[in-house]
Write a structure and sequence with these properties.
By secondary structure, the protein is an alpha+beta fold. The chain is built from 15 helices and 22 strands.
Amino acid sequence: MKPYPRWRLFLFIGVFLVCGLYALPNIFPDEPAIQITRSEAGEQVSAADLERLTKALETAGITVGATDEVGDSRLIRVGGAEEQLRARGLAEDILGRDYVVALNLAPTTPSWLRAIGASPMNLGLDLRGGVHFLLQVDMETAIEQRMTSWVSEVRLLLRDNSIRYREVSKQGQEIIARFSDAKDLSAADSKLRNQFMEFNIRRNDSRNELRLSLKPETLEEIKSYAVDQNRTTLNNRINELGVAEPVVQRQGADRIVVQLPGVQDASQARRILGRTATLEFRLVAYDKDPRSVNPFDTSVEVFPFKGDERDLQVLRRQKIVSGDQVTDAQMGFDENGRPEVNIKLDSAGARNMRRVTSENIKKPMAVLFIETHTDFEEVENADGELETVAKNREEAYVINVATIQDTLGARFRITGLDSAAGAAELALLLRAGGLAAPMHIAEERTIGPSLGAQNIEAGLKSMVFGVALVFIFMIVRYRVFGVVANIALFANLLVLVGVMSLIPGATLTLPGIAGIVLSLGMAVDANVLIYERIRLELREGKTPLQAIDAGYDRAFETIFDANLTTLIVAVILFAMGTGSVQGFAVTLFIGITASMFTAVVGTRSIISEIYNPRRGRPAKLSI
């Protein structure tokens, strides 16, 4: 028997122990909790408010557990899923609009495990329960909005270059620019071709007209941008409200899947999805008193400063730049260590900002935050069927006022912010912006926590039953070698769970449990191939130690080829699939990779120690 490196045995034991350590948190289930966060970013939860809420919960007969501090938020543990819903409703009534109350789960993992970064696997919607939405993006409106923006850019470019035009309008996916003479037509043709690469430009000299037709690839970019921007905005808004492990994924060309595990109130989830925000930069009408503004003056508008109705700001109605013209926003610190937000604008926004700020140096400019709340109501249509109708309402207030110190262009900064947390939130809102296009709910499902618990119980039962049968079969069929295979199988399960717990964002779903069971079956299959090959070598007259060497060496190529094809399928499933299909692919990929390690390296190391030639050559094998 060839000497097998002992370091591989220590490697196997080391991987087994490390993965077992990181798999350990999964035996500590999360507890239902409500998360309390101040509406104003960066502010701490008041101890007095927290004590008042805790007493009210106990008075209402709700079991209140420990309170955890998570950043600026507080997690209050409650007795169960039903009490969690009651506790959230009571908390919203008591705390009012000063706080955001969200459903969450509080970990029960011991502190020493959390200290080394160990945490349980995230559970998907089908295991934890929650709500599922399929949102349809309105592509026609997205194209309409972008075309309107381009019309404004064409007009601005012509004005900046002193090119006179009779009309600039849009018809569908075309922009039509008409001129009085051929000179202006030629000048415009030259400028527009250099600036507007997104269009095919056709010139009509007989009518002194230019037609800008949207290119097909640009049209696809607009559609893709609308879906991606909406997905980013939804993801940021949901994360801001503290929903645990949300899933916001693109599906197909114009749909977005939103899954909110742990959320059981569909109406609350709709409000979360309906909250969108955008920002506008406007000049402050500093010469007007907000308390004496003429209500019929259409040149100005009055808004509260940071939601305080006692501190009002009068803004010019015309906006300089809107949030959709911000291409990047990052939080930073100025030379004095105070928080700031560094802004980058697109070309159209930069031209507007440069023109307005050059004319208004030493005058104040405000950042107006506009939040749109979408309320969903079920109404009966003409056919007597219930359908969901969306109604929008806006809430706007000034979040920052700063004096223009110099002409601003594509890059500038916002200073005078209260805190680093507020600056980070402003940067996030500027990056995310509002929805690039309207959406409507195409599909809605609610999965109760009891169904999720049943799914977990059924999945675990199937896994335990299947693994138990495999254990019995391997011991009966292969005796000592079967025991070794079972040790490797258990190690494979620990490695799989440990790696899944270590991967950020990895989520276990019901199809993922199926992937685990399948990978365990294939792990045993590798051992069966090796052991049957060893039996064949023994029947051909080889000594026990020679049969072990030949069995592992000759079966390896077959095992590798079989597992490689399965790994390729898993990669394709992950790349092409969505949601639960990806969950299955992830667990299958990790399980197959782990099985190749445990079935080949693990069992070979243990067998080499059991039948070590230095202890004497065995007369026969227990196989």
